[in-house]
Amino acid sequence: MTVKPEQNELDPAALTAPTAAMVKQLEAEKRDLQVARNRALFIDQDSGLLNRRGLAQALKMRAPLDPTGGSTLALISVQLSREQLHNLSADPATHHHVMNQLSQRLGRLCGGELIGAWSDSLLVGITSGFNWAALNDEHHVRLDAIEHALTDSIDVRGVRMRPQLRIGLARPGLDGQLPGQWVSHAQSVALNLAQQQLPLTEALKDSLHATAKRRKLIETGLARALEQNELTLMFQPVQDCATGSICSVEALVRWSHPDLGLIYPVEFVNTAEDSGLTEALGQWVLQHSLSALRSLHEAGFALRCSVNCSPRQFDNPLFAEHCLSSLSVAGLRAGWLEVEVTESSALGNAAATIQSLQRLREAGCSVAMDDFGTGYATLNYLKNLPMDVLKVDRSFVTDIAHNPHSQKIVQAIIDLAHALGLTVQAEGVESTEQMDALLAMGCDRMQGYLLSRPLPLQALLDWLVDQPMRKA
Ligand code: C2E
Ligand code: MG
Ligand code: MG
Q1: Measuring CA to CA, which residue among 253, 254, 248 is closest to residue 297?
Q2: Per-block average pLDDT, block size 10, for the chain (472 residues)?
């Protein structure tokens, strides 16, 4: 039987129009899906408010935009008392209604600025125009007004209910460097208030005093710390997923302060920047990391070491040469050093950063982008910054085993990185569930408490003895 050609062949002309339309529709659907995914990832489904992740991202971006350098920003935390939360736990609809009312009040207090739900009982808002420098009577009035506005009774099915709240305040950028630290600070102010029955103003004065004192000790002590060896390094191992062997360690700096005890880098890395000590700190970390790496190699552990670099270090056009000469002093090949940068490294002096990174890569070092997914213009930097490794931020790993949106985002990051020829390293892997999910997605390297916490050099050497490893 002969089949008429027109019955069997597709007419390309007839196809063009529907195909183009279909492609357009598919693209629109893909965009909608992306918007829906982002929404689910950053917005609390019940309240429609930003969730913890959305808030953390938005707060991180909002704080540096303050024209007064953060001096008039205030973060307000509002939490239902434990007792009231317990009573409401039996009645989710009322709980929802109360939180909804409180979020509206907080929104009004913050003048339409950023607000969100840090948890199902803790709301957080940010307000500007707060004169922290003068905690005087005028502020007493303002703080009283905040308390009154929030604790006014709420209509619950015709019955008036007075919310019992713990209200706290913090100064973004001063009470810690990260949104999580500001929220913790505000909560500790609130706790202080509840325990000591202090008026808000008094609790704030106390905490302002303590924070200012701590900050001063950190600012004035850092130069001495560098000179007098108060700094130490911890090393966190990284595992190669394909072989299960340990392939590298990340150097993480600590400060044993004579009065304040152990201080983590989030508290002093930025201070170093403000005091012009970034370069000295960077040099200290590099030299001590390489000297420790040398000891590891001598003990038979052929590992790479990654070193965190502050964006300001790239202002020095000799940065790459300093790294290479430190490697040669330590008697190590360039391939044993991995330089970690963040997306913000390219915000300032992008051309100089790119040049330094290119030079390091030509010499054999590798470059990793740290905290991927938490910055400003992620995809743009992926295109422009010369690099080898992409480190998926812990915030995406935390709920990867249970949140399908996080899974899709991490899978997309891994696919994109692989398509660009990059190695993917997951940060903050704490459970076997997270590890299994990441392995199934094709992640190349992992780091986190599940494998090991950061360790001092000697403890690392002891730990490594029992680990699968390529011998030097
Ligand atoms: P990072 O480079 O992203 O380092 C990872 C941080 O996560 C480290 O905190 C590490 O102790 C912590 N971590 C590792 N695994 C887990 C986990 O499974 N769960 C949890 N919850 N946390 C985990 P650390 O040491 O406090 O460092 C914080 C940040 O300070 C670093 O983030 C890095 O940006 C910066 N930093 C650390 N050392 C240096 C340094 O020598 N120079 C510079 N410029 N920055 C540094
Ligand atoms: Mg790092
Ligand atoms: Mg990181």
Answers
A1: 248
A2: 41 48 67 65 82 86 60 86 86 90 89 85 85 61 75 88 88 81 87 71 69 83 94 98 96 94 89 87 97 97 96 92 97 98 76 93 96 70 86 89 88 93 96 96 97 97 85 48
Q: Are 251 and 213 in contact (CB under 8 A)?
A: no
Does the Cβ of 273 fall within 6 Å of ligand 1? Answer: no
285 lines ligand 1 (CB under 6 A): yes
Residue span(s) of the chain under CATH 3.30.70.270 come to: 52-216
Nearest 5°: CA angle at 32, between 30 and 35?
110
> Ligand 1, closest atom to CA 450?
18
The conformation of residue 401, written as its DSSP 8-state character, comes to T
Distance CA 190, CA 356 (A): 46
Intra-chain end-to-end CA distance of the chain, in Å: 73
Which residue in 373, 410, 366, 372 sits closest to 388, CA to CA?
366
Q: How far apart are CA 443 and CA 424, in angstroms?
A: 6
Which residue's entry shows tokens 């109360």?
98
Q: State how far the Cα of 99 lies from the Cα of 287, in Å rounded to an integer.
A: 52
What tokens were used for 448? 């986190």
pLDDT of residue 359: 97
Rounded Cα distance, 165 and 190, in Å: 9
What does the DSSP 8-state code read for residue 195?
Answer: H
Segments of the chain assigned to CATH 3.20.20.450: 12-36+229-464
| Superfamily of domain 52-216 in the CATH hierarchy | Reverse transcriptase/Diguanylate cyclase domain (3.30.70.270)
Q: Does domain 12-36+229-464 have CATH number 3.20.20.450?
A: yes
Per the CB < 8 A criterion, the answer to whether 76 and 106 are in contact is: yes
The Cα 348–Cα 343 span in angstroms is 10
Q: For a pocket test of ligand 1, which of 226, 252, 392, 430 has the largest count of ligand atoms closer than 8 A to its C-beta?
A: 252
pLDDT at 15: 41
